[in-house]
Design brief:
about 120 residues; HIT family, subunit A; 3 helices
């Protein structure tokens, strides 16, 4: 199921087709836009291809260090992630959900968590 509008989905598919195996990781290269968040081991980035069919806001929480699976996290990265998820995100009130895809359903190899604020129905 695609949670993107047709326009955003087409834009995302074009992006995926342009990528090559040797391309640098977009999450590693992306700088923080104004107003986003930066922690010691994690950063929040704006999602360029949001789930705009269901969400009015869609950002991505990514580790600063590139790794692909949760098993590769250091204890410090895991501790900060736990703090972000249990202490910081609930206080912000700008997201309704933190969603992690199964590794087989991800199109970006860099570990990441989707931060979503759902549209009102």
């Amino acid at each position: 199921m695609d949670f993107r509008t047709q326009k955003t989905s087409e834009k995302y598919q074009k992006f995926l087709k342009k990528r090559s195996v040797g391309d640098a990781c977009r999450f590693c290269e992306e700088t923080l836009p104004e107003g986003k968040y930066f922690f010691r081991y994690w950063k929040v980035l704006h999602n360029n291809f949001p789930y705009d069919l269901i969400a009015e806001k869609h950002d991505i929480l990514v580790p600063i260090r590139h790794f692909e699976t949760e098993d590769e996290m250091t204890s410090e990265e895991r501790e900060e992630l736990t703090n972000i998820k249990t202490q910081i995100l609930p206080q912000w009130e700008e997201y309704h959900s933190a969603m992690e895809n199964f590794i087989t359903a991800r199109t970006m190899s860099h570990y990441h968590i989707h931060l979503l604020k759902f549209k009102e129905l």
